[in-house]
Structures are given as structure tokens and as C-alpha cells.
Amino acid sequence: MREGYEGTGPGAITPDGCAVELYARLPVADEPDIIAAAVPAGAHILELGSGVGRVTHPLLERGFTVTAVDESADMLARVRGARTIRSSIEDLDLGERFDVVILASFLVHAGDEEVRRGLLRTCVRHVAEGGCVLIQREGADHHTDVPRERVDPSGFTVRITSVEPAGEGVSSRTRSGPRRSCPDR
After folding, report:
1. 26 found inside a domain
2. pLDDT tens digits along 5-33
3. pLDDT tens digits for 72-118?
4. Environment class of residue 35 by beta-carbon count within 10 Å: exposed (0-12), middle (13-18) or buried (19+)?
5. Domain that holds residue 104
6. How far apart are CA 12 and CA 61, in angstroms?
7. Is residue 98 included in any domain, yes or no?
8. What is the CATH number of the domain that holds 96?
9. d(CA 61, CA 163)
10. Could you tell me if residue 116 is inside a domain?
11. 58-61, long-range: CB within 8 Å, 24+ apart, which pairs?
12. What is the pTM of this model?
């Protein structure tokens, strides 16, 4: 697990610097609809970086079987109805295959190339033959169209104030109000 990232916010802070309570307050967006439209009904899904279950719970409601993976016990404590596994994604080896592997939360934008490769190796290791891997990533202009902000439907403002190159094809974001120092979940 990657320890040592600093984060601020209400409640427990995860090893990668995320405020658990902040993620628990985020509303469900359109991710569950996009996933449900892309995969077979009733599929067995491995959700890498599940956080508090913001996407997990709607997938369960749609009849999918979900195994939720996160490195934070505090995040996983909020997940209900799914099998939960506490592990870093890069180190995960369940010895089983899934119809669908989801690598959401923009985790694929990690600044360290070996971390990105580890994330993708985990996807390959766990997808069944004929299955699919769904990866969430930013649009092409996300790292150049700054500053920008949006008001979340739950009432707080997310403001992206700067973007800096972190490696080949990868950038780091700085946000303000509320402060977050980890990938979107």
C-alpha cells in the first residue's frame, strides 16, 4: 500500500490521502448506467478502487455481483452487499476471473509508470476469457482546460486550479475547495 500521502477533510483519511467522509457524500453520477449498458446482465464484476461503494451499490441494485477492492478499510466499511477485499490494486491476485473488471476513478492516470503498469496487469490477471475491462480516464483537454470548477449536486464546489506534468502522458492535478489529494473515486 502507498502510505504517506497527506490529505485533509472530514473523518478518517485513507493511506493515499482521501477523506472517507467526503467520498461518502458524493452523489452517484452516470457511471452505473454506462457500466450496465456495456456489460452483460448479471455479470460478475471486479471493481478496483471501489472506495465507499458509490458505484458498487447501484450495480448491486441492477443485479450484478460485485467484488469491491480498495486499500482502505475505512472506505470498505461503507460498502454493503458486496464481497470486499482490502488490498492495493497492484498487489491483488485473487486467483479467480471475472466477467468484467472495472478500473475507475481515473486511477490509470497515476504519475508512476510502474504503478500504471501494475494496475493494468491486475486487470489482465482477473478478466475472464471473453470478458471485458472498463477503464475510466479523463478527456484529452482535461489537463489543459484549467482553471475550472463545477458545483456538485450535493452542494460543494470542486475547483481544479492547476495541472502539472508528472511523467510521460500523465499529469498531476491540484484542486481546491474541498481539498483532495487523491484520484477521483
Report:
1. yes
2. 566 777 888 877 788 888 888 888 888 99
3. 999 999 999 999 999 999 999 999 999 999 998 656 666 677 888 89
4. buried
5. 20-135
6. 27
7. yes
8. 3.40.50.150
9. 37
10. yes
11. 58/28, 58/32, 59/32, 59/35
12. 0.75
